[in-house]
Each structure stands twice: as structure tokens, then as C-alpha cells.
Amino acid sequence: MKIWKRLRVAWPSWLSSKPATPDNNPDTAGDSHLALARESLRELLADERVPEEVRSSLADDYREVQTMLDKLEHGHIHIAVFGRVSVGKSALVNALLGQAVFSTSPLHGETRTVQQGQWHEFQDGNVFLIDTPGINEVDGEGREQLAKDVANRSDLVLFVVDGDLTHIELQALRALAKQERPLILVLNKIDRYNQHEREVLGNVLLERTRGLINPANLVFAAAQPVPQWVIRVDEAGNEVEQQRQSPPDIAELKARLWKVIEAEGKTLAALNASLFAGELSDQVADRVLDARRTLGDRVIRTWCIAKGVAVAINPVPVADLVAAAVVDVTMVVHLSKAYGLPLSRNEAGSLVKTIGAQMLLLMGTVWAVHLVSTALKLGTGGLSAAVTGAAQGAVAYYSTYVVGRAAERYLANGKSWGDAGPKLAVREILDSLDRDSIIDQAKKDIRQRLRPGEQAG
Fold first, then answer.
1. Residues whose CB falls within 8 Å of the CB of residue 245, separated by 6 or more in sequence, listed in order
2. Which listed site, 21, 170, 173, 326, has its alpha carbon 20 to 30 Å from 293?
3. Residue 437 CB coordination number (10 Å)
């Protein structure tokens, strides 16, 4: 998946307060970004290289991709509202929607599931506001994850607070920023503070969120102002005390949202979809690689045993090294098929020679033991085969194991050693292995495969 990465360089200009230019006209750029995003999602859905078992294990994510594709086709924009319990998330969404769609209650945990409402006030109603559970609810670990999942699949996140940031809020804000989701920080319940307190609190929030929030994306709101007691004089001249509910004060938030959506709405939707597609693409790649590694483990073990047994019982010493090379080449051919990158026998042979050359430089002692054992077999006419066979077979097993792991790394990197080259790759593999435990396992595997009358050493 390459297309989604191209959208990352087109990060919305409003995040960095960079003015639009003729070269990055929002409408033109937005349409281009949407086209790229749709192409990336279609490509991901139609990729026939993904094994069926991997596709099944990620079925929910694939359904989400289809939902996102439908969303892009209809031009929908999703805005998630995120924050602690009782900061007024539901009230804020209701105020934007202009009606009491979601329940607002002084009780903690009132919003227990994800809820969605259509914001008809903007354009043709293609904007949807999503209310989420609080991030600090009792037994709220699952809900917090749910809220993060919703935020990950939203084009824009309103992070609502009602005062200075708590530790939990700052952690959540940092987590969202790392996920590269556009954020607007909303200081709600602003009616509880006087002008001086607002200025002080605003400066504190800007300082705490430096590097996380664009200063232009800190806005003040009062979604559900505290009722005020007023004195009214009735017709008889009597003073009557009664409560008066002030209307929501969300003009600043609306203005910021309208500016963002009008300037960058299409790009936001495309960017979010592409980020999600990229994350899913990485998951698919990891699952496929895990499946191939499991199959690769079986292939390597099978040929390690075959080579170890063949070397242990071979009565013609000089043929050992020839047989060993044939086994290694055959193993690499099978590994390449497991990784979906088939190699010819000539290509596999060249790869084995490359790995073998590095092993010879790094494992001189091991190869010396192998050669001495061969010489013993030849010099004694095979009489010492019973003594040296199991040890030599275990060494052959080990060498094939290293060849297999090195070839596996080469294939997992798409037939490439990367910048490090084969020497460093082989060295890292050798350093990561416990040679003694592999040799012991090799001896056990070889003895189990040999018939009682043929057991060596």
C-alpha cells in the first residue's frame, strides 16, 4: 500500500496555520486527495494477494474499510467528541445540532455507547457529530478503547475539557496526537470563569499542549450555561425570583469548525481514510508475515532434520558437503514459495553461496569441525562414522538452520538485504541464536529419525 503515504505529505494547512495559495487551492487539492483515498481503499479491498485466513481474521477491519469507502463516495465528514466524564460532551453535541439528541445528566457515565447525529446546519447535512463515552469512567477501560477507536475513524476530533488538563486528559491528548488525528481543543463551561480567569486558563492550556495543538485550535464554549437567578417585577409590583436559562455560547466553536470544514473538509476525510487504510495495510502485512513465518519454521525444521540425518548416516564422506548444498538450495526454493517470492534453483543456489560465504567468515570454527569430521570419515574408511556421525549431522543441521533464517530475512524484505547487506544480516542472526540449544535439539531430532540399527554417536 503506497497511495495512502502520499496523502501524509498533504497534511491540512490549517494545522500549521499556513495560508492557502493558488497551488494548494482547497477545492482542487481536496478533490485530488479524495480520489487518492478512494483508490487506496479500493486497492486494499481488492488485493487478491491477501490469504483468505488473514482476510477472515481482519473481517471487521475490512468492513470498516468498506464503510469508509461509502463515506467518501457520499462526501460525509465525521467529527468525534472526546473527553472526560461530565465535561459536557453530549451537551456540546446537542448545542451544535440545535436539539437535545443525546442525554445529558449530572450522573457519571451517562454516555455508555457511541452515538451519532447529523449536523444539518452545515452545507447539505454531510457532517456527522459523534458523541463518545468518557475516558475516565468507572470500569471504563473498554469504553476508553472504544472512544479511541471512534476517534481513529473520525476526520476531526473535538477534545473537550472544562478546566486545566488532568493527567488522564493529557495522556489521552498525547495518544491522539501520536495517531496524527486533527484536534480542536474546546474549553467548555466557560461561563464559570470571568474574563481574567479565561485568559489565564487559556494561556495555561496553550502551554501544556505546546506541540500537540495549534493555538488557533483552542476555542471557548458554554454548551449548557449554568441557569442564572434573576429578579422579575410582576404586574402588582412584587419582586419574583426565578431561574433563567441562557442559550448555548458556541459561536466561536462553530466559526472554527466551519472554517476548517470549508477549507479542508475533503482533505481531512481523505487523510483519515488513508491513515486507516495504511494502518490496516500494516496489519495485513504483519499477519501475512506471521503466517509465512509459521510455514517457514516448518520448512526450515524439515530440511534441517533431513540434512542432519543425511550427513550423519552418509557412508561416503566427500559426498556430505555436496549433499548439504543440495539440501540448502532445495530448502530455500521451498521457503521462497512460502513467502510468495519464488526463486529458481539457480537463484536459490546464488543466495545460499552468498549466505555460506558470510557464514564461512563468521563461523570458521564450526565449519572446521565439519571438515575435520569429514576427514575422519574418509581417513578411517568410514569406521569412525558412528562416532562422528551424530555430531557432524548436528553441525549440518545448525548450518542449514542459519541458512534458512538468513534466507527468510532476505525474502521477508522483498528479496533484499536492505542497507545493512548480507554480512550484518548473518551476523545478527548468529548473535540471536543459542547455538548449544539448537545443536542439542538437532541431535535429538536426528536420533529420533534414525532407525535403531543406524543410530550414530
1. 225, 227
2. 326
3. 9
Provide the CA 68 distance to its chain's centre, in angstroms. Answer: 17
Report whether 309 contacts 394 (CB < 8 A). no
Q: Is the CB of residue 85 less than 8 Å from the CB of residue 136? A: yes
Digit-coded pLDDT (tens) for 30-88: 567 667 767 777 777 777 777 777 777 777 777 777 777 777 777 778 888 888 888 98
| Interval 367-385 mean pLDDT | 47
pLDDT at residue number 187: 96
Interhelix angle 251-313/435-449, rounded to 10 degrees, is 50
Domains of the chain as residue ranges with CATH: 3-283 (3.40.50.300), 314-454 (no CATH)
Task: Determine contact, residues 188/162, Cβ cutoff 8 Å.
Answer: yes
Ramachandran sector of residue 125 (left: φ over 0; alpha: ψ -120 to 50; beta: rest): left
More confident: 264 or 410:
410
DSSP, res 222:
B
**Alpha helix (H) ranges present in 98-222?**
141-152, 167-178, 195-208
